[in-house]
Amino acid sequence: MLLEPYNQTDHPECKSRPDSGLSAITELDPGYITGPLSSVWKEWVKWCVEFGIEANAIIAVPYDWRLPPSMLEERDLYFHKLKLTFETALKLRGGPSLVFAHSMGNNVFRYFLEWLKLEIAPKHYIQWLDEHIHAYFAVGAPLLGSTEAVRAALSGTTFGLPVSEGTARLMFNAFGSSLWLMPFSKYCKADNIYWKHFFEGKVCCPHRQQCDEAEYTSEYSGWPTDLVIIEVPSVRDMGAYPSIMDITENITSSMECGKPTLLSFSAREVSDGTLFKTIEDYDPQIKALVYQLEKYYQGDPVLNPLTPWERPPIKNVFCIYGIDSKTEVGYYFAPSGKPYPDNWIITDIIYEFEGSLLSRSGNSVSGKPNNSSGDGTVSYNSLSWCKNWLGPKVNITRAPQAEHDGSDLQTVMNIDHHHGQDILPNMTRSPHVKYITYYEDAESLPGWRTAVWELDKANHRNIVRMPVLMRELWLEMWHDMHPESKSKFVTKAFRGPLRNEDCRWDYAKARCGFPEHCEYRYIFGDVHLGMSCRLKNTSTNLLQQYL
């Protein structure tokens, strides 16, 4: 799978290309054991088909996730093909499409929208979007990047695969897409070509950003803490990173004398290349990352992807993500004394969790914590950046994730929303109850709707197969598609079972739960009481109450 780091060409002995069709997005490794472990959009496809969506109306658009955005188009004509896919779907189905993207897929879709501006005359751009895209559902979008990308670049992340971290790092750094998820500052934009930044007396890369004054007056670049603190030896006259034989002794003696220097880097200094240029003297292989950053990101002809994303000009936008999981937001690195790719080790990790910052070592952490924590992979400030897309007045509703009768529903209407500020609902939480909090436009531009859904304890990689997300997505789709729907968004007043699988046995009352919707009906082959609980009415009849 390795690519040549500089020109992103295939390994001379192996050519890999992305799969196509629904099989490419349902399971990564189909099989009796491996299938459920590697399921991605499989459950969502099953939901759609079960509720009457034709299979050929669900179109998968997988991409080679190893490539930087410009190479997707240069090598595979990916964005030309994606545009043609939307246009073909419109002709076949007679209406606009719904777009669902997860994680880095959101970065790809953002790039497509910017690429499209250069392909279509400006006066036809919005018209094309209105005709071809009805709604965009952004699931787990790393809108300001993820600190895990820094970990993968310097020490390696295996994602549970049976490889060493060094091997994972070697592979990750060969992919031009590795920098696509790097964290960046919400204060820096790429609209202006010049901004002043110095690195040890040398002018930085030729492709520059313009940062707001807040970037330099705010202590933490909009992130909860300094992202990277790295220990480098005082020895700087080496031509290559020290090998075990050549320089370990020098580093060890320097450490014993207290000579190593601690350098800290903000999100801006990660995304503008300052971090990588600083450690080039100690890790020459980093030069490939600097080259990729300058060519494929800062020098991209469409946009610099490492800049904040404004609300896409699509009529209906839904931003969905998990919160309140322990999430990595910063790292301490030190030289290991080993050769590349194992030359850096993580000495400490900074986490955000339930509104506080803590370190693995137990040491105190400086920084301003977010109001909540992220989804276990992406930090809260990156996921919740889409709250800036909401209108000036917002309605907030908090409801249990499980089926409910509305008794534990909390609603606050017409909350003032100021751009750049988080919205904090003044609502209570019952212990041991997982909630979903909806932020929905009360006021917005005519014809536009924006909503943000926060799901308690929803993990970044598993969110796309959570039954609660499947239910909410389907109800919103049903509401939008139905000609008799009256409200702006689907009602939150109650949630009942929609499928036989949602009915369960209530052991305390010795009957099926939700007796108004479910009944006991044994069918040969049922192996426990819950399997014999089935819907009284059809799913179509049950859906009528959500209009």
UniProtKB/TrEMBL annotation:
Pfam families: LCAT. Transmembrane segments: none annotated. SUPFAM superfamilies: alpha/beta-Hydrolases. InterPro entries: AB_hydrolase_fold, LACT/PDAT_acylTrfase. Gene3D superfamilies: alpha/beta hydrolase. This is Phospholipid--sterol O-acyltransferase. It comes from Urochloa decumbens. The lineage of its organism: Eukaryota, Viridiplantae, Streptophyta, Embryophyta, Tracheophyta.
